[in-house]
Amino acid sequence: MAITVQKCDIDMVRRGLEHAVAHPPTAAVELAAVAESKINEKYNQYLLEELLCSEFTSRFLDLESALEIAGACWFAVE
Asked: What number is the average pLDDT over the span 36-54?
């Protein structure tokens, strides 16, 4: 799992992980909706946003595992 953060310190990352574990998105598509760059394939630019989010989710997001790992990381940092 990789989490990319910009312009934040370790305390902000900890709070973000804590919040993600305590209040996870109900669906991976919700998370994909806020991803900055979902266009990875040649014809993705022609997809409607809903379909683009769905495609991105199916290829790049495993929400259940990500939350499990984030929870383990959060508790390891405390």
From this structure: 88
Closest CA to 21 of 78, 77, 69: 69
| Own/partner pairs, 28-34, CB within 8 angstroms, 24+ separation | 28/57, 28/61, 28/62, 28/63, 29/53, 29/54, 29/57, 31/57, 31/61, 31/63, 32/56, 32/57, 32/61
Residue 76, burial from CB neighbour count under 10 angstroms (0-12, 13-18, 19+): exposed
Residue 75 is predicted with a pLDDT of 57
Q: What is the mean pLDDT of the chain?
A: 82
Q: Rounded to an integer, what distance in angstroms lies between the CA atom of residue 20 and that of residue 66?
A: 10
pTM exceeds 0.70: no
